[in-house]
């Protein structure tokens, strides 16, 4: 199962983007968040996900936090 970090969350619009370990940026919709409420996601949070088809290319599905309160420090470095 791929992992990555939440790059950006648009709470009012109900979607966001994940930066995968391979540096790809993937769209995700609030309906795909598991294990916590969408509005609890924060930028830098580590997540696992599956990759599924989307209207504009691959997208993240079955998005789950690795740990709800753990943020990645190395994202600020690179």
Tell me about this structure.
There is one protein chain. The chain has no helices and 5 strands. Mean pLDDT is about 90; it is low at about 70-78. It has one domain (about 5-70): Nucleic acid-binding proteins (OB fold (Dihydrolipoamide Acetyltransferase, E2P), Beta Barrel). It has strands at about 5-10, 15-20, 25-30, 45-50, 60-65. Strands 3-2-1-4-5 form a 5-stranded antiparallel β-sheet, with no helix packed on it.
Shape: globular
Unreliable spans: 69-78
The major pleated sheet works out as: 5 strands, antiparallel
Q: Roughly how many Å apart are the termini?
A: 23 Å
Question: How many alpha or pi helices?
Answer: 0
Along the chain, the helix and strand elements come as EEEEE
Structural descriptors:
single chain; 78 residues; mainly beta; OB fold (Dihydrolipoamide Acetyltransferase, E2P); 42% strand; disordered C terminus
In short:
The chain is 0% helix and 42% strand. By secondary structure, it is mostly beta strands.
What order do the helices and strands come in, and which of them pair?
Elements: E1 3-10, E2 15-20, E3 25-29, E4 46-52, E5 59-65
Antiparallel strand pairs: 1-2, 1-4, 2-3, 4-5
């Amino acid at each position: 199962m791929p992992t990555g970090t939440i790059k950006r969350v648009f709470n009012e619009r109900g979607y966001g983007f994940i930066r995968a370990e391979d540096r790809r940026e993937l769209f995700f919709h609030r309906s795909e968040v598991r294990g916590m409420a969408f509005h609890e996601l924060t930028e830098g949070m580590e997540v696992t996900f599956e990759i599924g088809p989307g209207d504009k290319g691959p997208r993240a599905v079955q998005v789950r936090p690795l740990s709800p309160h753990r943020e990645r420090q190395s994202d600020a470095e690179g």
